[in-house]
Amino acid sequence: MDQTTQTKQTTQVNAQDKTQMQSTKTFEKRGVTKKSENMSDWYVDVIVKSGMADYSPVKGCIVYRPLSYGIWETVRNEMDKKFRKMGIENCYFPLFIPESLLKKEQHHVEGFSPELAVVTIGGGEELSEKLIVRPTSETIMYAMYAKWVHSHRDLPILLNQWNNVVRWEKRTYFFLRGMEFLWQEAHTAHATHTEAWQQVLTALDSYAEIYQDVLAIPVTKGRKSEAEKFAGADVTTAVEVMMPDGKALQGATSHDLGQNFSKAFKISFQNEKSEMEFAWQTSFGLSTRALGALVMVHGDDQGLVLPPMVAPTQVVIVPIGDDDQLHEITDTKRLALEKVGVRVKVDARKEYSLGFKRNEWELKGTPIRIEIGKKELETGSVTVAIRHSGEKIQQDIASLEEALPKLLEKIQRDMLEKAKTMQKSLTSTAQTYAQFKEIMAAKRGFIHALWCEDPGCEAKIKEETKATTRCLPLDAKEEVGVCVYCGKPAKHRWVFAQAY
Ligand SMILES: [Zn+2]
């Protein structure tokens, strides 16, 4: 399954170059590069300085620190709930794939071969058959499916694994492209194509919900072009996300594999009419790329901005001063908030100033910060600082546990609305190729344009503007018109964008 079929953009920052740059560059004590000035530098600063992730001694591989891993765990929990509803069960397959298995589906192996990590020596001896470190698990899983499936009664198979995969990327970029990344890959086998296609769409819907409801990021759902689809799939569908710099990110993919793999791997069954038939298959995946989208879409000049649904700490209480009454009240409030399901921390560290703590919690994107001092105890009212909007509101201390859960829900909704407004401002329609080029040069973003579906035109557009077809939206209506590039008849308005 492809996490990507990405264009290699020249603006990407090589992880190692960046490390060297950082060692020679003096940053402000806690500050980050301004997002509006240089989004690429800002992105790396925010991730490293907030403590989300860091470079590792292995070139191209990063360390997921608790802040990013905590977010990933929430995504995972929410996704698992959806899998359970779909009847999909979690399992685990080996990290290594015998080379012969990977070679069984020709398009598949061609799609991956330049990026493979290969083990040739094990236990001090040359291996008789090379082992591939999984770039994805279609082949090893389907070798087993062939063993397990004989009759229509053995279908469907609905399995998912949460794992890591390795792809030898030359240019890496935190979360968006790495040599090793985390994801889930689900692989299903069905008795009919109708059932398999339904699974493809249900999975795609669940990804859209994860992005919108959990990460507060709007998406466009659609079908990929022949050139952009996953190697080995009949149809690839994806959720596409718009980043604030006008470049798109493929958020997750769901593939209709048809019978391509079942024929290669001999996953066949006796149908109800006692005829032999090959199984209909799907695969779909969501990766830690989602964390990159989260950082880019919501972050600001002060750092990360996390939607409450995924924030490992939703509320931080900072006591101002150090006396028993103050500690008692902050502890009581912490317990009361925990009781109503709020993830809350008290930052009572004595070795740091209030200013330092404010900056740090802002950098980490914590949705709500509350400061309680002597004055607050006297008035019975605290200032609640809301991270994403910068607003400050007054709230009675006594009713924090009633007010904050509602406020967190509101923040979640407001952040999605804000992201929708951003996406809308970066979505255009082009009638002519001149318009297309003008928009792509000025603000980029999603461009809706009629395309004849000839791969030649698609390649020319990519060559001249760096924009690729992102998808044909699932709800697109048929039109009568001409291709934005060649002027030949075109009936569908595709979404184009430069992509990460
Ligand atoms: Zn054309």
Q: Can you put this structure into words, describing what you see?
A:
The chain has 500 residues and is α+β, with helices and mostly antiparallel strands. 36% of the residues lie in helices and 27% in strands. The protein has helices spanning 15-24, 39-49, 66-86, 99-102, 106-112, 138-148, 193-214, 260-265, 289-298, 324-339, 354-363, 374-379, 400-425, 433-442, 455-465, and strands spanning 53-55, 62-64, 89-90, 96-98, 117-122, 125-133, 157-166, 180-190, 220-223, 235-242, 248-258, 268-270, 276-278, 280-287, 315-319, 344-346, 368-372, 381-386, 392-396, 427-429, 446-451, 468-473, 481-482, 489-490, 492-497. The strands form six sheets. An eleven-stranded mixed beta sheet has the order 3-7-8-14-11-10-9-22-25-21-20, sandwiched between helices. A five-stranded mixed beta sheet has the order 16-15-17-18-19, sandwiched between helices. A three-stranded antiparallel beta sheet has the order 4-6-5. Helix 3 runs antiparallel to helix 7 (193-214). The longest helix is centred in the C-terminal third of the chain and has 26 residues, at 400-425. The two termini are 17 Å apart. Residues 1-29 have low confidence and may be disordered. Bound molecules: zinc ion. Zinc ion binds next to loops.
